[in-house]
Amino acid sequence: MSAADKKIAIMQPTFLPWIGYFGLIESVDEFVFLNHVQFDKRSWQQRNRVKTANGPVWLTVPVVTKGLRDQAINETQIQHENKDFPEKLIRTIEQNYSKAPFFPLYADEVFSILRKKHAHLMSLNADLIAYFCEILGIETPIIFSSEMSVEGHKAALLVNICKERDATLYLSPPGSRDYLEASDDFERAGIALEYFNYNHPEWPQAYGDFEPYMSILDLVFNMGDKSMDTIKQGLS
Q: What are the beta bridge partners of residue 60?
């Protein structure tokens, strides 16, 4: 790539993402939160998994959805009337990671963010992702699609975001391959398209055999300042 080339990735903001999400952020010049599209209830946008003695369990943020079927991600409010949140979620994390070697280093700040009374799910997710980028040493700029004047659906929307950000290459998660390859939008726009292939590394975990695709919490509580080196092992 020449000095003028710009690689970006575009993803919905997810709750306490898995490590590949941070590998994707690290791999591009700019990362876009796709936050003006429709919220998907019970998706990674509001929940993720941690490892326990009884296998993976879900950590879920309660959100307001009644009568709001078409609400966008950036409009989705946290349901603070739910008295269990965030303390039940925090207790689950403590019960399963308090003995992890680096839990004392990061837990207080993570719990502080969870307790911050964010009005919207988007702001909670963005704060958590920003915190983990900071401790991982990831400096990729992150911007919000809701702050752009872009329209379209699926491939057309992604192309329009790339155009607005002057991107010459779009790095896509492999899960989007089917609908992207059914379209010629990127080719017609002259924007290169590549797929992000991540080979999940392993690290020491509690509770038996290694369990992949857990929240970033599992990595940082167990690996501390070696976390970014571990993430990079999966980058091809």
A: 47
